[in-house]
């Protein structure tokens, strides 16, 4: 009788082990499938420009600075830049807006796209100084755009004529910051900005056509945080904006290597093993990242972020000309780079500044409070000390930017 009970128990244990082993095997197989689909074995060519030695593959100094300027932030990470290398003057290149990389739903006036031209120029200038050059800009050297035929104008008229000149006195404190992620959406620590940090950042606006305000009192923090949350909520409810974002979201390494621009899971701070897992899961089960889930996540990220922010930055211009938009972008990039040099991070919360109809009320409200004399607020950012580091996002190959208009 005892032997029979023992045999029965042994068989039961053996059956349980076989079952658990089968389940474990299936889980391992499923995990392997998810990670493979997510691209764990695919080299991330889209990250090559983040290497500090990437620019060295180019012999032309103009391409060397372009190869580093491509790290600049841009609206929707569209990187809407093309460059023309002057054939008659080896010191000169021209920057153009790429009209195939516009985002008309969220940026119907292409204002953010022109701000992005300024970020490219600021990064290029820092890269040039590191290589022993000064970089001077002539904005819209052939005249400004025909607003009634904007795309054609963008193809024909350069945003800037850039001239490099050898300069033994050229120097920059912000070069290392080029290679740090420009946007950090995580909650920040409770540490306030120091007086020295605030002063250093504020001084960047000296001589700029744009102005920079750094605000950290309780009333401004609450008001601007609410504008940030309101803008995110409205954008996630705007179908055209959602479709536009969906079109430039890439969920696998293969897709990212092809696109090298737009959105990916890194924008949520996802990296390492979890990046591949999430990419594979989204690809196999798209409902995991459908519009409802994406909206919920965006709203939650913004809410958590504004509740843990040390200060806000506002960049404004007297009016809203194309030149001023570019100038605002230059100042924003300088602001972002210097913040990283000082150990700070930031995140744009500029949805409330977008010019489509459903954003009209909060757009008017923030301008009434913070631009009462008719200025245009070009950028709203939150800033502070990071609690986690964000991964780098996709960047185009520098050679792909070269174009003869």
Automatic annotation (TrEMBL):
TM regions (residue ranges): 17-46
Presence of the UniProt keyword Transmembrane in the record: yes
Xref: InterPro entries: Nitroreductase-like, Nitroreductase_HadB/RutE
UniProt KW keywords: Membrane, Transmembrane, Transmembrane helix
Gene Ontology terms, MF aspect: oxidoreductase activity
Keyword Transmembrane: yes
Protein name in UniProt: Nitroreductase domain-containing protein
Species this chain originates from: Lacisediminihabitans changchengi
């Amino acid at each position: 009788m005892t032997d029979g009970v023992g045999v029965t128990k042994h068989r039961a244990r053996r059956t349980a082990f076989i079952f658990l082993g089968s389940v474990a095997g299936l889980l391992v197989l499923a995990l392997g499938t998810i990670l493979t689909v997510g691209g764990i074995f695919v080299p991330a060519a889209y990250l090559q420009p983040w290497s500090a030695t990437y620019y060295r593959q180019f012999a032309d100094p103009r391409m060397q600075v372009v190869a580093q300027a491509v790290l600049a932030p841009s609206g929707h990470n569209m990187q809407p830049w093309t460059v023309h290398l002057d054939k008659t003057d080896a010191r000169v290149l021209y920057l153009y807006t790429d009209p195939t990389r516009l985002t008309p739903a969220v940026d119907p006036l292409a204002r953010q796209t022109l701000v992005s031209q300024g970020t490219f120029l600021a990064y290029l200038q820092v890269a040039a100084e590191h290589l022993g050059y000064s970089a001077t800009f002539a904005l819209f050297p052939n005249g400004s755009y025909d607003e009634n035929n904007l795309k054609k104008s963008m193809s024909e008229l350069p945003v800037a004529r850039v001239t490099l000149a050898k300069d033994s006195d050229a120097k920059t404190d912000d070069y290392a910051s080029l290679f740090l992620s420009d946007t950090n959406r995580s909650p920040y620590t409770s540490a306030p900005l120091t007086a020295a940090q605030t002063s250093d950042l504020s001084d960047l606006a000296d001589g700029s056509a744009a102005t920079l305000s750094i605000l950290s009192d309780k009333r401004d923090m609450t008001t601007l945080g609410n504008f940030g949350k309101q803008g995110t909520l409205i954008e996630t409810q705007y179908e055209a904006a959602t479709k536009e974002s969906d079109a430039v979201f890439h969920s696998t390494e293969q897709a990212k290597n092809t696109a090298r621009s737009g959105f990916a899971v890194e924008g949520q701070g996802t990296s390492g093993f979890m990046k591949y897992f999430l990419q594979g899961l989204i690809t196999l089960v798209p409902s995991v990242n459908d519009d409802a889930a994406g909206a919920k996540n965006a709203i939650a990220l913004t809410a958590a972020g504004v509740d843990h922010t040390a200060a806000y930055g506002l960049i404004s211009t007297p009016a809203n000309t194309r030149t001023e938009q570019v100038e605002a972008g230059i100042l924003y990039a300088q602001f972002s780079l210097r913040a990283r040099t000082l150990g700070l991070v930031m995140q744009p919360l500029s949805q409330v500044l977008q010019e489509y109809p459903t954003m009209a009320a909060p757009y008017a409200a923030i301008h009434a409070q913070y631009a009462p004399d008719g200025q245009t607020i070009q950028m709203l950012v939150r800033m502070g000390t990071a609690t986690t580091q964000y991964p780098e996002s996709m960047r185009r190959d520098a050679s792909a930017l070269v174009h003869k208009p």
